[in-house]
Structure formats: structure tokens, C-alpha cells
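Hi R.,

Here's the chain you asked about this morning:
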Amino acid sequence: MSTSLARFFLGCFVPLLLAAGGEPPPPEQTLGQAPAFSLKDQWRTAHQIDFPNDKALIIGFADRHSAYDVEGWHTALSGRYGERVYMRGVAALDDCPFLWRPWVRPILRREVAEQSVLLDWRNEVAARYDFEPRKVNVHVISCDGRRLVQVNGRATEERLAVVFDVLDKLVAPEADEKTDETEAAEAGAMD
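And the predicted structure, written out as C-alpha cells:
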């Protein structure tokens, strides 16, 4: 049983995805303002999430039932955006059996030592973000705190395309990536 709980947290909560640059969609195309919140992680360290800030944010919520679906999101997002994005993982633990609760923090400290996993014991924060139980809930939030998109469920091609479309507008290209215009200008300068 502890293996499934550890797997839940390992796959669930990856580094907060933050991205600079780009213009978010107009306010009329958003889901409203993202609520600020503070939660403690597996080390009992409080983390404050508030807006505005200088980077975009992705927050992933998952409960014990959606644990196996998180890895697909993490792999796709980290593979495409790498360090240009930052994700904050929130464990929606309201449905965690009472007898398991004393083991949640020790398992996370051991299994997810390099990352902070925010623990929402009563799903109060999850509810403010319209959490849909038994599904991974991925939120893309602009620098000024607008909720741009919420996608719930497994990381299918269609769902990833929705998130990628929004993030691609927010995330500046990596410094080592060259656009066709840059390459053409450099080739012209060499001639």
C-alpha cells in the first residue's frame, strides 16, 4: 500500500513551472482570477502562492485516485518546456484514509526529497480551483494571476494541445533556440 502512495506523490508533484515572456489571452478569455493560497509541504514549510509575479505558473492538483495519471503530464510538460516552466504540485488529500495520514509526510520526504509537495488536507485550496476528484487538474496561470486554462484528466494529445497552445504564447523561446529569421539574418551577415 505504501508503494502506491509513494508512486502517487512521486509522479504527482514536479517542480513549479514558471515561464517568462509572451502575452496571455485577453481577460475575457480567462477563467477568472486565481486565488492566492498558502500550504505547507512535506517538511512543514509554508509556501505562499500569490499574484502578480514576474512569471507564469502551472499548478497541478491530484488525489490518490489520479496518481498514475500525473506522470504523463509531467513527462510532456518537462520535456517540452524544461526549465522555462515551473510547476507547483498540490496533493488533494481529503480522501486520504485517516490511518494513512501519519505516513504521508515521511513517504514524501523519502520519495520526493528534491521537490516540495503542497499538502491540502481538507481540499480547501483544491475546491477554490474547481478541483475535479479522481482526475489530474492542470491549471495555467498568467503573471497577473489570471487562470487561462484548466484541463482535467489524463495527458491525452488533445488535452496536451490545449495546454501547449496557452503555454507556447506565454513562454519565451530558450536562448539557444534560433528562429528562422535569426538564422537568416546571421547567414546574411556572414556573406
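The chain has one domain: 2-190.

Let me know if you need anything else.
M.
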